Amino acid sequence: MRLYHSPMSIALACRLALTAADIDHEVVIVSSLSGETKQAPFLSINPLGEVPTLDVDGAIVTQTVAILNFIADLGGQGWVDAAPIARAKELSTMIVAAVEVQSAWKMINRPNRYAPSDAAAAEVGAQARIRLDAAYTELERRIGLRDTSSPLTVLDYYAGVLALWKIMAPAGKGLSPTPHLDAVKDRLMNTPKLRQVIDEDIASYTAMMG
Does domain 2-77+196-209 have CATH number 3.40.30.10? Predict the structure, then answer.
């Protein structure tokens, strides 16, 4: 199994899930910062040029929620035995994370993609930050409804990475507090094998940023 990954991208959630489940896998670094994800040969693997991308014996799986769902089914982690309604609620929260939180980050990081001029891009960025705060607030509300004593699930790996983004990225400064999300991140950081993966990712990202 091969995971195509760019350091500190949302693909980190998939890397954490694979590590937590002790699933044997290879990590292939494809830098989104340098544009490598939008070039050959990666485009022949995923024409959308996005990570995470998972190669399972030649079968390509894309999109974070789909990959995490696959890993959860493969590795258990309290997912397989969960009631259908519990799984549906976890999936619903992951979709909110993808559609609302990640989309807002994309608009903040690349406002020119969504605007015809630099002046318009500045307005897009400002509106995206408002949207980002609202998205994190909704994610925080949903995470707060969960039983924090339960074993970690793939949703925790997803939410934990988004909590890291909020802390590390300049645009995350000044957003509304998210103590439940921060608690999820702390649970990951307090799990040695997951902490090692996160530390490696941060180091790789820092090196790429120069």
Answer: yes
